[in-house]
Design brief:
- The complex is a heterodimer of chains A (265) and B (274).
- Chain A has 265 residues and is α/β, with parallel strands linked by helices.
- Helices cover 33% and strands 24% of the residues of chain A.
- Helix content of chain B is 79%, strand content 0%.
- Chain B starts with a helix and ends in an 8-residue tail after the last helix.
- The mean pLDDT of chain B is 88.
- Classes of the chains: A alpha/beta (265), B mainly alpha (274).
- Chain A binds chain B through residues 60-62, 82-83, 85, 88-89, 91-94, 102-103, 105-108, 134-137, 154, and chain B through 170-171, 173-181, 184, 188-189, 192, 268-271.
């Protein structure tokens, strides 16, 4: 089903950092080995503070690794990757159109051309007619649509998404999940999606990676064999809840109050 | 005439049935009443000889002085001189303070280098430096403009540095994530984040520069509003002292309004706070 080309390869990725307050070296990520194939949708879930967002920042190049190696992309068209950030990451001083065109402007594309190339993506995410609004004039869900369009506009091979729906209300979040599947199917993107919502990960992804509590490492790599296209109603089927149970047990084992001690895990 | 005006005031009375937009805002009405009350009390205090007119003057005496000095044109050279000193000195303060502040805010090593110097200057009342400036540069326009520059440049620089520092990490991360070149990172994140601080700096530094004008003219001058005030003060012409103060105050209010308009222009992307 998916291409054989590797879109992202992480080998022995490790991250230590110096805690500024205590001046003690902390281990954020113990070891991550991960291959993502072209066209795959991979979700990473894990307990709070497990280093999943940190891992995404490493992939994006915002943080240097202490050890290991990251290879992104096969060097085709466009940018090799682009990030969809958490909420309120649009520039408040830019209109929707300027925000969505920003990635292209960063590549040196002229402003007018960047805007022309951004417009189809504004339509794609369902923001037609809102291009001259400022972010504060949009709802949270619409802001995240613009956020997604900004990443899509640079035509990346790999889309990195950092808990993009975390701050949305439950109904808007479900709607956005369905929208994301529609858009990704239309645009044919490889996606690495970070979330702390188990049902979100299972609903969206071909593979769900479960991370341990800090320091982060991979506990399980679960193939989600639910047919596509998926409707939201799939969340109430038996196979779906079975996946939920499986992932929840893994995460619960990492929470000191709920599962066995960390040493046993 | 009297009937007409009473009719007019009744029509404007807030209690009458009127579309709400015509009603004068309570804030404005009370503000004017307070202001007029002070003028009346002031006039009465002097007219009832509770205090000497030569010291306290009075609203009518000030108006008379204004009519005389504006009528004869005698005040204009003073206003022109002060405005010129303010304009040149403050323009220089802006031209130096904003770029310097941006550079110091952006480059950490430069900040380490100049920070002790800025802190020391900031702790020193600029007035204390004024006699030295006059001593070195003389009493002509360049010396005065330089003193005004000194008063304005520091608040301008520090406000701009604070503006750069206010640029939020999450926005800088976005610029880095999209591989924005340094110049674009500056234009798309650092500058827009700094603008509210720079405008606040303009407001404060403009006021400081005005203090610089008056200080310079108090020390040594033969023209300007500061000279006008101090000269009339030594000759016990208190109405003209007040007139000079009022002109400076009016200029300060006018300048504040100009800044407010600039601010409104830059802040279309902000939700209305009130």
């Amino acid at each position: 089903m998916h291409g054989t080309e590797i879109a992202l390869s992480a080998r022995g990725v490790r991250l230590e950092y110096m805690d500024r307050a205590t001046r003690v070296s902390m281990l954020a990520i113990e070891r991550m080995d991960l291959d993502i194939h072209e066209g795959e949708f991979v979700a990473i879930v894990g307990p709070s503070g497990c280093g999943k967002t940190t891992f995404l920042k490493i992939v994006d190049g915002l943080l240097p690794v202490t050890d290991g190696e990251i290879v992104v992309g096969s060097g085709g068209h466009g940018r090799d990757h682009a990030m969809v950030f958490q909420d309120s990451s649009l520039f408040p001083w830019y209109s929707v159109l300027d925000n969505v065109a920003y990635g292209l402007v960063c590549q040196g594309v002229g402003k007018r051309e960047a805007q022309d190339r951004a417009r189809p993506y504004i339509d794609m995410v369902g923001l037609s007619g809102f291009q001259s609004k400022f972010p504060y004039q949009l709802s949270g869900g619409m802001q995240q649509r613009a956020n997604l369009a900004r990443a899509l506009t640079v035509d990346p091979e790999l889309l990195l998404m950092d808990e993009p729906f975390a701050s949305l209300d439950a109904q808007t979040r479900e709607l956005m999940q369905a929208e994301l599947l529609r858009i990704c199917a239309a645009a044919g993107k490889t996606v690495l999606f970070i979330t702390h919502q188990i049902d979100e990960a299972i609903f969206l992804a071909d593979r769900v990676i479960v991370m341990s509590a800090r320091p982060g490492r991979i506990l399980a790599d679960i193939d989600i064999e639910l047919s596509r296209p998926r409707e939201l109603s799939v969340k109430r089927t038996a196979p779906f809840t079975a996946y939920e149970d499986q992932v929840w047990k893994l995460i619960a084992s990492q929470l000191p109050a709920l599962g066995p001690q960390r040493a046993a895990a | 005439m009297a009937a007409q005006s009473s009719q007019l005031s009744r029509r404007k009375h807030p209690g009458n049935a009127q579309p709400p937009r015509i009603v004068l805002p309570e804030r404005l009405v009370l503000g004017v009443i307070g202001f007029v009350a002070v003028l009346i009390v002031w006039e009465l205090v002097v007219d009832l000889k509770l205090e000497k007119a030569s010291l306290l003057s009075s609203p009518t005496r000030i108006v008379t002085a204004a009519i005389q000095d504006f009528g004869s044109g005698a005040i204009w050279p003073h206003i022109g001189t002060s405005f010129l000193e303010w304009g040149i000195g403050f323009a220089l303060a802006i031209a130096v303070g904003i770029p310097f502040g941006l550079a110091v805010g952006m480059f950490r090593r430069l900040e380490y280098l100049v920070d002790p110097f800025l802190a020391a200057l900031y702790a020193t009342p600029t007035v204390a430096i004024a006699p030295l400036v006059i001593l070195v540069l003389g009493i002509e326009l360049p010396a005065k403009a330089f003193l005004v520059f000194l008063f304005g440049v520091l608040p301008m620089t520090i406000a701009t540095i604070n503006g750069v520092h206010s640029a939020e990490r999450r926005y800088l991360d976005i610029a880095r994530s999209f591989r924005a070149p340094a110049m674009l990172r500056f234009r798309s994140v650092i500058l827009p984040s700094s603008v509210p601080y720079i405008i606040a700096g303009l407001r404060i530094a403009g006021g400081h520069a005005l203090v610089g004008v008056i200080v310079a003219e108090f020390l040594a001058a033969n023209a300007g509003l500061g000279f006008y005030i101090s000269f009339n003060g030594t000759t016990l012409n208190s109405a003209r002292v007040f007139l000079g103060i009022l002109i400076i105050g009016a200029f300060g209010v006018f300048y504040g309004e100009v800044i407010r308009r600039i601010e409104a222009k830059f802040e279309v992307w902000r939700p209305a706070l009130r």
